[in-house]
Amino acid sequence: MVSHMGEKVGLVHQMPFVCDRDGFPSVLEKVYFGTCVARIYLAADLLGINSVTGMSCIFRKSIVDELGGLKAFGCYLAEDYFLGLGIQKKGFKLRVTSQPAWQNPGPSDIPSFQARIRRHVLYISRNDGFFSHENNTFTYCRWTQLRIAMVPTTILLEPLQECVVLGLCTAWAGHALFHWDPLVFFLVHSLSWFLLDYCLLTSVNGDWLTFSKSEFLLAWLFREFDAFRQFLQ
Q1: Is 17:101 a contact under the CB 8 Å cutoff?
Q2: Of 89, 48, 47, whose CA–CA distance to 66 is shortest?
Q3: What is the pTM of this model?
Q4: Is a pLDDT exceeding 80 seen at residue 33?
Q5: pLDDT tens digits along 108-118
Q6: Is the pLDDT of residue 128 over 50?
Q7: What Rg value do the Cα atoms of the chain yield, rounded?
Q8: Which of 69, 149, 185, 230 could form a disulfide with 171 if both were Cys (CB 3.0 to 4.6 A apart)?
Q9: pLDDT per position as a tens digit, 53-67
Q10: Number of domain units in the chain
Q11: How far apart are CA 150 and CA 145, in angstroms?
């Protein structure tokens, strides 16, 4: 991380990733972080868009002191995002390291993985009128709330970054404009996306994958075709 801290760089952060573990849910997690998350994260870095995650980062203390110190960001739920935004406004760049932030969340199953994607946070009600279940608990989707508050346009555009939704839209457009066969177009689109995702995952992982290509195919298909349902939920 230090090696990426150049003269004009104010903050260096790491892309979220996961360690190797046993079981299909761990393969699904690795495919998700190594394709969908990596694609967005690296594209944002390339375009200079703030995508800082606070799980692992280093920054220039002098810049943050000018912004009021870490205490000034304590009022934000997404303090990492606003920290990166403040450093950008000071004229400094943000950089992603070549080494991802390796997470080891322990054993998991598919429902808990899906809940993690949706970023559902469960709270115990304090009898303050914000509960809706018999066990006095309520849930809210943290990431959705953050996006609505900070960058609401992403809510409308988010489905278009997914392979299936984008493929269906462009297949329809290609048929309407150029009379291309929509099924052939969608299949070629999906195959190209699949191959590029495999290359991206192996690049992020930095070594050969510990699971087979067939396991990758199953996890990739499950994630891509379940993405829009997760978005709606």
Answers
A1: yes
A2: 89
A3: 0.84
A4: yes
A5: 788 888 877 76
A6: no
A7: 20
A8: 185
A9: 888 999 999 999 999
A10: 1
A11: 9
Range of the domain at 50: 2-126+135-231
Read off the pLDDT of each residue in 201-227 and give the average, rounded to a whole number: 94
Distances (CA, A) of 112 to 14, 115, 143, 181, 183: 24, 5, 16, 39, 34
Q: Catalytic residue among 22, 80, 128, 207, which?
A: 80
Active site residue 181: no
Please classify residue 28 by burial: count the beta carbons closer than 10 Å to its beta carbon, then call 0-12 exposed, 13-18 middle and 19+ buried.
buried
Least confident of 8-12, 145-149, 164-168: 145-149
